[in-house]
Please model this.
Amino acid sequence: MTEITKSKDFGNGWVELNIGPQHPSTHGVLRLKVKLDGEIIREVEPVIGYLHRNAEKICELDYYCDSLIYFDRMDYVGAMNMEVGYLEAAEKLLGIPPPERVQWIRVIMAELSRIAAHLVWAGAFGLDLGMLTPFFYCFIEREKILRIFTETCGTRQETNYMSIGGVYQDFNDKIVYDIEEFIEQFPKKLGVIFDAYVKNDIFISRNKGIGILEPEVAIDYGVTGPMLRASGIDYDVRKAEPYLVYDKVNFDIPVSYKKDNLARFLVRFEEMRQSIKIIQQAIKKIPDGPYFNPKAKKSLMIRLRGEGETYARTESPKGEFGVYLVGDGGVKPYRVRVRSPSFKNLSILPVLAKDVMIADLVAISGTIDLVFGEVDR
Amino acid sequence: MSILLRLQSLFSIFGHYLSFILAYLFETIFMIVFVMVSLIAVIYLFRKYMARVQLRIGPNRVGKFGLLQLIADSLKLVGKESVLPRGRDDMPFRMAPIIIFLGLIMSFAIIPYGSLYWAGSLTITDSDVSVLLLFAALAIMPIGELLAGISSKNKYAVVGALRGVAKDISFEIPMMISVLALVMMASARTSTPLNLISLVSVQFIPYGIPQIIGLGVFFIAMVARASYSPFDMGESDSELVAGHSTEYSGMRFGMFYMGMFGSIFLGSMIVSILYLGAYNGPFSGDLGFIYLLIKSGILVILAFTIWLSVPRIRIDKFVNLGWKYLLPASVINLVIAGILTLGLGI
Model:
């Protein structure tokens, strides 16, 4: 590989190290240009764009109903939340509100997807710290969610389940039974995973007081989601600006005032418990009725026309996911723009990972919860 | 009678010199086969145990219960291209895996193995200062890691090698002090306390009981020298890709891999020799080797369990641990050993 040189540009004997884009702990294709002073990191510069697929532009070339699959592939571990985000905007623009039953179904699926995304994060975070075993416990639980998804919509990860004005197919008894079974056993399993992490002194020493994110800095950088809530600000779109039927269910927003890695870890685990609470209520309250809006019949789907502009924000597992749509009266959107939470959250890394050790850089970038489909789009 | 002399008498029809040459040759072959078989067993055990802990199945396709999986893997590694980086320091780069493997095999040669019923004593070499020899042989392996890190001219490898050096310095001093305490205790009973065999023979009570602190320090040191989690900072895969072995591929990488598993097995054997009474036990004249294997097997499983359940410790925290906790603990242990030896005469 490259020869080690003390570059004259830095003058002070720092070594420039490239972490990624092919590296075990960069969660995909993040590249970090790191200036090292021995073990201490003096500067970090994230370089992104290795997974850029031009999703926004492709959406502009497609019919409204076709864009959904590109949103599935943004945050691919929490795909249902991406679909909810896009449809919130698209349905507002096209004027096709989803029926009551669909809204409840979407809430259930989005929360299941949120749990799945957080489980992936929890496992990968363990790997970042050198803990191999909890990863498998997380993925076994996630597998149960993916089985529910398979039963519901035929695929595991990039679900493409929802559609404009409804969902692809209705819940049947087996799905409801599966979901009930899952939420009944999940809190216990989550407790096992949680204990595997927090009952470990080394885990605590690797995370407590590391990567402190002050709330003012977080707001300045546009950080949202669990990272913001771990810094002591109780902002959650589900509460602040309820969409779907989130105002009809009872749940709490976990907030921590410790601001460090451990706080982010605890907030995410508590969020999973709150998601279970939401699903428990939703599965009881789900009403009967049609599962799609008759205005958006499948044969008419590509002829839907939208005019005007709209912005919809939803709470994805990573943070506030916003979709901006402009329609010019045609069958295709004029402009699609996505505010992806991971991208904004990543921008905080150079601030957090200043004058820390390499091991802490890995831990901090682990707690940011990056999914590169969403950062690069 | 050592294994060498018995082999020599077996070959005595070839004459004096030739029989010795043949005896050395066969002894070496036996030992390398033993090391290889034990490595394969340890890696197989690790894979199956890891799979069981992680709710997986583990290797089960090649051979019965996947027993031949490791042979298939090593054949694959032999067949793979060994990529050499262009900017390397050629000789150290090629030497490093060999040095590691050499240190491993040398250490295996010095250990007393006890005896098995028809084979008699399995000990390969014996010396009055075999404790010193053993730790000298153990000290060879970090040289290989350091050479590998520096000669591959890769930044990850250099950082890994530097971490390895920091790690080695911080645990080796407490480790040697706890061995010193053992030798001190043994010197009350035997005239050759630096001989591993007499060190074992004086353990009427295993030294792990009076020297419980020393056992702890030494076991931590042994896990650390095998680069096992939580002390695998040198090759931490999520930070430094593979640390000092980043640039190695093919069988050269396989040698690092085997060195890692070999040193945990070796470390467990040394701990059981020094602290757990090695091959002592009922009918040790017949079953001594089995006792040694069982004791070190339990320690290997313990090390695996630690590996699978804890995250990696940060390098500065480990250096702290070494100098602020292990070193004072080992000195206290030395004082306790002195009191036990002089005051109580155990």
Notes: Chain A has one domain: 55-376. Confidence is low (pLDDT under 50) at residues 1-8 of chain A. DSSP finds 15 helices and nine strands in chain A.
